[in-house]
């Protein structure tokens, strides 16, 4: 049975979705379903997450996918992705993302991504997060691929939530996909 997200992906590739999770086990199940549906559709998945959660997702996927299908999963450690220069620097993250997706784009391979965004603290500077999310939103629309940005709900202060609602056109709320009422698409 296809999820609502998969149905939407089949009709529209450029999806930038915000997902704030409370329960880690539920989060893992949702990520695994997203990856499995991608594999079934012949798509690669770029999973950006931490090592510990990646291993839990991988264990779950071993119950769903065979060894050949697991090759459709490309894992990137989120610490390296967001802090490859030693600090959270949007230009470097943008370059890392571009380098990561370029082989898929150049070889005309369908791909999707799931990015678990986490920091030791979610205290500002907010403009840096907003700049990165706007870049990512533009990339999703330009390159036409689905991306789910996952944030741990308890680590999201109200100001960050408001910013993320403005930079993501779709939000997963109680396992339902809804449109953001405050989304502001930047035209570049």
| Count of individual beta strands | 7
Q: How many DSSP H or I helices?
A: 8
Main sheet characteristics? 7 strands, mixed
User: Which value, in Å, is the CA radius of gyration?
Assistant: 15 Å
SSE sequence, one letter per element: HEHEHHEHHEHEHEE
Percent of residues in β-strands: 15-25%
Describe, in plain words, how this protein is organized in 3D.
There is one protein chain. The chain contains 8 helices and 7 strands, in the order αβαβααβααβαβαββ. It is of the alpha/beta class and 188 residues long. The longest helix has 18 residues, at 126-143. Helix 7 runs parallel beside helix 8. 49% of the residues lie in helices and 20% in strands. The protein has a 7-stranded mixed sheet, sandwiched between helices.
Topology at a glance:
Blueprint: H1 4-11, E1 16-21, H2 24-40, E2 44-49, H3 51-62, H4 67-70, E3 73-77, H5 78-83, H6 90-106, E4 111-116, H7 126-143, E5 147-152, H8 158-167, E6 170-173, E7 176-179
Parallel strand pairs: 1-5, 1-6, 2-3, 2-4, 4-5
Antiparallel strand pairs: 6-7
Helix pairs in contact: 2-3, 6-7, 7-8
């Amino acid at each position: 049975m296809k999820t609502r997200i998969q149905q939407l992906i089949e009709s529209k590739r450029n999806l930038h979705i915000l997902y704030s999770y409370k329960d880690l086990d539920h989060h893992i199940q949702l990520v695994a379903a997203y990856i499995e549906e991608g594999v079934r559709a012949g798509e690669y998945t770029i999973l950006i997450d931490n090592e510990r959660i990646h291993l839990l997702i991988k264990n779950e996927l071993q119950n769903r996918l065979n060894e050949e299908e697991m090759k459709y999963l490309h894992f990137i450690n989120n610490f390296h992705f967001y802090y490859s220069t030693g600090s959270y620097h949007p230009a470097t993250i943008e370059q890392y993302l571009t380098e990561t997706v370029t082989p898929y784009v150049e070889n005309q391979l369908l791909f999707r991504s799931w990015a678990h965004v986490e920091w030791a603290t979610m205290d500002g500077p907010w403009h840096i997060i907003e700049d990165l999310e706007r870049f990512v939103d533009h990339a999703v629309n330009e390159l036409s691929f689905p991306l789910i940005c996952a944030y741990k709900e308890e680590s999201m202060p109200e100001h960050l939530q408001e910013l993320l609602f403005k930079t993501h056109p779709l939000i997963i709320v109680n396992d339902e996909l809804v449109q953001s009422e405050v989304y502001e698409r930047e035209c570049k």
